[in-house]
Write a structure and sequence with these properties.
466 residues, mainly alpha, ARM-type_fold, ELMO_ARM, ELMO/CED-12 family protein, 5 strands, Leucine-rich Repeat Variant, elongated
Length: 466
């Protein structure tokens, strides 16, 4: 492959002065098996006629990293590397720029370079030996940093990558309280300015801190970042921010104690949260982000569990015209009439199964997520639809008084099949159920049985041929 000279090598190490007509590139062969990077660098220095008394490094581009025995696997035929000053020269220059801060343009340059190398274990280890991560925490505490959202974003991204690496056991467990408080300020509406990219990285970093093993950090996050302060991020046009906010909301609930969880659920059940979800994340005409929907599912389950905590018979008379149903039912002969309490209990059981309150392989919360968030009283509304469906299916099946279980099984499957179409509102669900009368269900079962038998027959024929 080829090695080219970094034209700015003198900026990192003033002792390296490039000759006016000196070579700027060379072809080299690297033996990946030997892993002797020092010999490779020595050979490159000789070929390019660089001062042999100075220290150098070879760097990859995208992502930037210094060549070491540990990342030789990145070398491939036709590689392109850049010879530059050793990591120590980089760190010294960056440390001075970040420490003095007299010129924030210089700070931005330093942070840009640091962020580019912040995922390189070799560079980060050198940074820790000649400087330290607390220099970045001190920079975060500098009020002037908020004047440049670019610098703030670069600083946070650098810290995030370095803590992710965990070099020298410096990871999320060792984070400073300064970092927690600064991040909380950025996401809870207390910052003077707000930038989507800054909010995005801050939300992700807070979740990492929350998931750390450091109990002190975890408690500080729970104290500084109330879940309700994140609701406003759901209304952002940037879906990445909404996704990060929902993910953090789930994490905050998971890590909180029982009393705090109850308070969080109350905020999730509040009108601001439902409005933010239905009016922005699930807005009509907006494309559906699968990751967003996945984050909404556990939140909806929490709301369902809260609604069913004291479940008896849902007060659905206002939604179902119960009087009409009971009146029509009473006009039938006693052998063909359904009984109110068994029907109510069957419908409760069906709804509980569909919504995962009762553990079931046929839970449909994820498929009904948009509908559930759009209904003010989703449990009661779904119960009302189920009662109406039970009444209609009973009539279509010409069921007798002892066939409640049989009708309930059909109703359950009708709901499950309708949910597969992911209805976004109650009217759509009702239309889907109207398209699945009992005679249609029998046709579907017959067709599926024939397909199953044909598949089995085909499998047997294949086995015989083999």
């Amino acid at each position: 492959g080829a090695v080219i000279v970094d034209e700015l090598i003198g900026k990192w190490n003033a002792n390296v002065v490039l000759e006016a007509n000196g070579p700027m590139s060379a072809f080299v062969v690297i033996d990946k098996k030997s892993g002797d990077v020092n010999e490779v660098i020595k050979h490159v220095v000789q070929e390019l006629k660089l001062p042999p008394s100075e220290s150098y490094g070879l760097i990859f581009e995208e992502p930037k990293a210094f060549l070491t025995p540990d990342n030789l696997d990145r070398i491939s035929h036709g590689f392109m590397l850049t010879v530059t000053a050793a990591p120590s020269h980089y760190v010294v220059r960056l440390h001075d720029a970040l420490l003095n801060r007299s010129d924030f343009k210089n700070v931005e340059w330093a942070l840009t370079t640091l962020e580019a190398f912040s995922s390189d274990p070799c560079f980060v280890a050198c940074f820790y030996s000649l400087s330290n991560i607390h220099l970045l925490y001190d920079l975060l505490a500098d009020d002037r940093l908020e004047g440049s959202q670019t610098c703030l974003n670069l600083c946070l991204r650098s810290i995030c990558s370095m803590l992710d690496l965990g070099v020298q056991d410096i990871g999320w467990n060792t984070a400073s309280t300064i970092l927690v408080i600064k991040l909380a300020t950025l996401v809870t509406g207390r910052a003077k300015r707000e930038d989507s990219n800054v909010v995005l990285i801050a939300l992700r970093m807070i979740e990492n801190l929350l998931n750390s093993d450091n109990a002190t950090i975890r408690l500080l996050v729970l104290e500084e970042v109330p879940a309700q302060t994140l609701i406003r991020h759901l209304e952002k046009s940037d879906e990445r921010v909404a996704l990060a906010a929902l993910s953090l909301m789930n994490a905050l609930h998971e890590k909180s104690d029982a009393p705090a969880r109850e308070q969080i659920i109350k905020h999730f059940a509040s009108m601001p949260f439902r409005t933010a979800v239905s009016g922005s994340v699930l807005r009509e005409g907006r494309g559906r982000n699968a990751a967003l929907l996945c984050q909404l599912v556990p939140l909806q389950r929490l709301l369902i569990n809260e609604s069913t905590k004291f479940l008896g018979v849902p007060a659905a008379e206002s939604d179902v015209d119960a009087l009409l149903l009971v009146t029509e039912n009473s006009m039938r002969s006693s052998a063909a009439a359904w009984q109110l309490i068994p029907v109510w209990m069957h419908c409760i059981s069906i709804v509980a199964s569909v919504l995962g309150v009762i553990p079931s392989e046929e839970e449909c919360v994820e498929k009904l997520i948009e509908l559930l968030f759009r209904c003010d009283s989703s449990l009661d509304s779904l119960f009302a639809v189920t009662v109406q469906l039970f009444h209609r299916t009973w009539r279509e099946m010409h069921a007798s008084h002892d066939e409640h279980d049989k009708v309930a099984n059909v109703v359950h499957e009708q709901l499950r099949r309708a949910a597969n179409h992911r209805p976004t509102n109650l009217n759509m669900l009702e239309d889907l159920l109207l398209a699945l009368p009992y005679w249609k269900m029998k046709e579907l079962w017959k067709r599926e049985l024939i397909e199953k038998e044909n598949n089995q027959l085909g499998s047997e024929l294949v086995e015989r041929v083999l």
